[in-house]
Every structure is written in structure tokens, then in C-alpha cells.
Amino acid sequence: MTTRIGVVGTGYLGRLHARVLTEMPEAQVAGFVDASDTIAADVAGSLGLHRFGSVAELAKAVDCAVVATPTSTHYDVARELIEAGCDVLVEKPITAEVEQGRRLVELAKKKKRILQVGHVERYNPAIAAVAPLLQDIRYLEAERLGVFVGRSLDIDVLLDLMIHDLNLVLSLFHSKVIEVRAVGVPVLTEKVDMTNVRLELENGAVANLTASRVSQERVRKVRFFSSEAYISVDTKEQEVKGFRLGNRAIEPIAIHVEKKEPLRAELESFLQCVRDRTRPLVDGEDGVAAVELAKQVAAAIEGSLQRWRK
């Protein structure tokens, strides 16, 4: 059984979605929408996909769609698709503003549509492998560094990169954030390009997060510390190292990772949810919670910048 799907927005990330979908036997890719004639011609030529003239036209031809347009347009595009009866996977962040995200969640509930958010790290095989082992996490340290590529400049590094780790903290700690401390600086843009954030949770756990989109290298690492174990995850390489205390000695933990392209795992999960009408691993409410936390972090960064300017 195949599911009819389309893609709205075929820039860098949208094109990746389109390419992966064309390789999936369970997906019937009806086509795509893109405002740029140049990009559309390239996508149509390289992937052999039909270009629709509007979101409304695409909505009539599909059961579901991926929204990979600029963040500032997520709300309007996703809303139009949901109102037309389509299930939607919207790239992270779900929306630029919290209230917009909440309205999408309510609309999806009203229309009984699937609303999934593209926090792809949750589908990374390395994270999936360690998630069941993460008991009593006391401390998390994450580094998410990227080179400057000139994309997603309508948002800061919080919504561009750190949003992944904010979602991981909320989903893996299962506890409310009660204190936020943060510093950040603009470097190559007018928005914050580098930041370090310390989050304290209600259960006493602490998360220390660093993100940069102006680094000299690409790093994706998360380290988990509990009372019984230490687990280090490289999500870029999908490699895991784990150790625990046993018999008064440090012992390795055997953790098997079945490597797979995370985006494909995310899309497979979305299509499964569409077919089975089940809740996504990362639903609209999860996406909104991540944006809400990002806004708290942004306020803390602004406070630190104000003090520095004085």
C-alpha cells in the first residue's frame, strides 16, 4: 500500500525530503510546490517530479505533505494543508511563534489530522538505541556545531540548531525546566549565531547545551550522565559509547546501533502514522514545547546582552 505525499518547499532540506521519498516504495510522490522557478526546474529535472502551481493544487492530489518552507511561512502553509484535509509533517521549528504552533495543534485536533514535527534527531538510530537505557539522568551535555552555510537566516541559532537539543531535553528528562541561564552572540548575522545554555529541571537534573552555526567543523554530540552510567552519542556518525560501574570497576555497555539515514527513519514513521492514524513520536505539542523553551532561552540571552552592553 502506497501513500500519496507531496513536498512544499524544495530548498536544501525540502529537496532532501523529496529525494528520500522517491526512494521509498511505500510513498507515491505526487509532486512539489516551490516559489522559485530555478529551484523548481532543477528538482523537476533531477528527481522527475511534477511541480504544482500552488499549495491548494497539491493538497487535492495527496493524502499528506511535508512542509519545508522558511520558518516564517510554516504556519500559513501547514494551516492551509490541514484545512484541506491533509496530514502534515512540518520541519522544525514548528512555527516561529508559540501561539501559531498552538493554533496548528488545535486545528489538527479539530480536523483529526496527523501533525508531526521534524525534530529528526529523535529518529536518529543512535538516539533510538540509547533512549531505553537513559534512566535517572542527572546531567546532559550537548554540542551542536555547524559551519556557516547562509541558510535559515530568518531565525537565530536557537531555532535553527539548538531546537533539536531542547526537544531532546524535554522528551528524555520528563521534567519541567525551572531555571534558564544563557549567553549568546551575533557573529556573521544580526541574530544570535553562537550560544551556551544551562537548564535546571524540576527533578534536579541539569543540561548544558552549546550551539554554533559559525564553527569550523560540524559536530553533533550528546553525553548523558546518570548515577549508574555514562553514555556518549555522536549522532552525526551514529556511534555510541557507554560505561557503567560494576564490581567496583568501570565496565563497557554493549549498545547496538542499526545505522540508517535519520531523515528516512523520520519519513517512514510519518507515513506509518498516516496509515495507522497513530500519534507521532514528535507531535505538534512536542514542537510547540520546544519553541516555548527556545523563547525562554532567547529572553535569557537578551538579558545577558543587555548587561554586557552596560
Structure description:
By secondary structure, the protein is α/β, with parallel strands linked by helices. 37% of the residues lie in helices and 28% in strands. It has 9 helices and 13 strands. The strands form 2 sheets. Strands 7-8-9-6-10-11-12-13 form an 8-stranded mixed beta sheet. Strand 12 and strand 13 (249-253) form a beta hairpin. It is globular and about 60 Å long. The N and C termini lie far apart (63 Å). The mean pLDDT is 94.
Q: Topology, please?
A:
Elements: E1 3-8, H1 12-22, E2 27-33, H2 37-47, H3 55-59, E3 64-67, H4 74-83, E4 87-91, H5 98-111, E5 115-118, H6 125-130, E6 137-145, H7 157-173, E7 177-185, E8 194-201, E9 206-212, E10 219-226, E11 229-234, E12 239-246, E13 249-253, H8 262-276, H9 284-309
Parallel strand pairs: 1-2, 1-3, 3-4, 4-5, 6-9
Antiparallel strand pairs: 6-10, 7-8, 8-9, 10-11, 11-12, 12-13
Number of strands: 13
Secondary structural class: alpha/beta
What level of helicity do the residues show? 25-40%
Mean pLDDT: 94
Distance between the termini: 63 Å
* N to C succession of SSEs: EHEHHEHEHEHEHEEEEEEEHH
Per DSSP, the total helix count is 9
Q: Tell me about the largest β-sheet.
A: 8 strands, mixed
Sheet with the most strands: spatial strand order:
7-8-9-6-10-11-12-13
> What is the molecular shape?
globular
> What is the radius of gyration computed over CA atoms, rounded to a whole number of angstroms?
20 Å
Low-confidence stretches: none
Which percent range describes the beta-strand content? 25-35%
